[in-house]
Amino acid sequence: MWALGAWVLLGAVGAGSAQLQFSAVKSVEQTMCNKTVILPCIVTNLVQKNIKDMFVKWKLEKKEFFSFDGNTEKTIRNNNFSSAVLESVQNLNLGIASLTISKTQAVPGNYSCEVTESNREGETVIELVYRVEPWFPQVESILIILSLVLAILLYWIQLGVTVSKETTSWGKIGLIIAGIILSVVAAVGFILLVPDGFEPKNQAGLGLIVLPAVILVPLQYFLLKIAFKNNLPVYKILVVVLESVGYLIAVIGFALCITACPSKNGAVVIAGLAIMALTAVVGLIYVSHLGFSKKDQPPRKAVEEPFNDSKGVMLE
């Protein structure tokens, strides 16, 4: 009888002093697409399961930044973690003390979760790791850049052909300035887009690549207009229309990509810019082979009249 009483007493003492145990989670990955981060903290051996008897503390590198008192239901948080909230206060009595923090405030590091239930307590440590990855797959990023580079390069070649043939000094200056502006803006866009991540700078980079490309449409029109002496052949109109369609497709792709993470519509942007580049190839062919070649041919009458005059003199 004495032995049985001692065993019950020791069991009660052991149960009261036993540490709380947690689900084994060593680390959590935060990706660029996360808007919030959930730090898991789940107790597996609660006894009383009463929120009034529970107290939760969260620390970052051993510095407390969040606490919740179940008895008073009062939350205290550091200003640097103003977005921190328990994932579910209602489920705290089930042992779920996980914490939700916004992406901008969830800095990488070792977070510790300390839970107290009456006179029992326990602690677990979770490492938050930030994984940086590209917004677009590498192949898509390369194709976006190469498509616009090719379109701009072909514009400069067309401009060189046009300037070497005929244009006014003011026309040369305007076309050159427009080309320089487009090239500089595109270069800045490339620099901002290339680094991994889904940040405002990456979004701005894509915008600087796609949106200013509209400059190529009127520039293509003016180059063809100069080459064909203000005439409007059907194929010249078709070239400009096709380039406009390519730009419209690129803008639609930009609108689909700008808020999507990870991006799934990069191919639409590539298709639009590729159409603009191919159209520039056609424009270059028209400018260099059809435009000035036709214009430079002397009129037929101008050739025949001197011949007829000389023939008349011989007959006399």
Structure explained in plain terms:
- The protein has 2 domains: 20-131, Sandwich (Immunoglobulin-like); 138-301.
- 52% of the residues lie in helices and 17% in strands.
- It has 8 helices and 9 strands.
- The protein has helices at residues 2-17, 138-165, 169-193, 200-210, 216-227, 234-257, 266-296, 300-315, and strands at residues 27-31, 36-39, 54-60, 63-69, 74-77, 85-86, 99-102, 109-117, 120-131.
- The strands form 2 sheets. A 6-stranded mixed β-sheet has the order 1-9-8-3-4-5, with no helix packed on it. Strands 2-7-6 form a 3-stranded antiparallel β-sheet, with no helix packed on it.
- The termini are far apart.
What's the helical proportion of residues?
Answer: 40-55%
Please report the distance between the alpha carbons of the first and last residues.
157 Å
Largest sheet: 6 strands, mixed
Structural class: alpha+beta
Count of runs of 4 or more consecutive helical residues = 8
- pLDDT < 50 runs, ≥5 residues: 1-17, 294-316
Number of extended strands: 9
Give the neighbour order of strands across the main sheet: 1-9-8-3-4-5
| SSE series | HEEEEEEEEEHHHHHHH
Calculate Rg over CA atoms. 36 Å
Q: Calculate the mean pLDDT score and round it.
A: 83
Strand % is: 15-25%
